[in-house]
Amino acid sequence: NFATTTEVSCNYQTGSITATVGEDFESVSGILSIPAGQLCTTIAIPILEDIIYESEEVFKFNTYYPVGATIGYPIGIITIIDNEITILGCYSATPRTLNNTTSQVLEINNH
Q1: Angle of CA points 41, 88, 3, to nearest 5°
Q2: Going by fewer Cβ within 10 Å, which terminus of the chain is more open, N or C?
Q3: CB-based burial of residue 96 (10 Å sphere; 0-12 exposed, 13-18 middle, 19+ buried)?
Q4: Concatenated DSSP letters of 33-56
Q5: 29 with 12: CB under 8 angstroms?
Q6: What is the tens place of the pLDDT at every residue in 23-52?
Q7: Looking at the DSSP assignment, which residues form a beta bridge with residue 15?
Q8: Is 99 left (phi over 0), alpha (psi -120 to 50) or beta?
Q9: What pLDDT is recorded for position 82?
Q10: Residues 6 or more apart whose Cβ sits within 8 Å of residue 106
Q11: Residue 34 to residues 42, 76, 78, 100: CA-CA distances in angstroms?
């Protein structure tokens, strides 16, 4: 990965798939920013504890309206196992050539 040469940002929002907002995780939304010279940024998504045994559940992390980047994978899937987040991602912008032009591509990387 390469550090960004300019600030990169986009809107984000979580959404239910099999995990339930308010029972399994708290919904979060906002604008994520990666400052120039940085590789990634971190977003906190609270995972909620309960006393019910459940199998793996998933929710999505949507990104949209990029500024200074092209979104490579706009939806990240996050898996909850036993009420603990098990897949952590780091959003990063990487220079890529798309349609014969070089641009920043925002993607989720497991670190």
Answers
A1: 30
A2: C
A3: middle
A4: EE-TT-SEE----PBPP-SS----
A5: yes
A6: 988 999 999 998 888 878 888 888 887 777
A7: 60
A8: left
A9: 64
A10: 8, 10, 63, 66, 69, 70, 71, 72, 91, 92, 93
A11: 9, 17, 21, 24
Task: Please say whether the dihedral angle defined by the alpha carbons of residues 95, 87, 55 and 21, taken in this order, is positive or negative.
Answer: negative
- On the CB side of 49, how many CA atoms lie within 13 Å of its CA? 1
Which tokens hold the place of 66?
């990029």
**Tokens 């706009």 appear where?**
74
Burial degree of 110 (CB within 10 A; 0-12, 13-18, 19+): exposed
Considering the entire predicted model, what is its pTM?
0.70
Q: What would the two tokens of residue 38 be?
A: 């940085």
Cα dihedral sign, 19-43-105-111: negative
Q: What is the pLDDT at residue 107?
A: 47
DSSP type of residue 49:
P
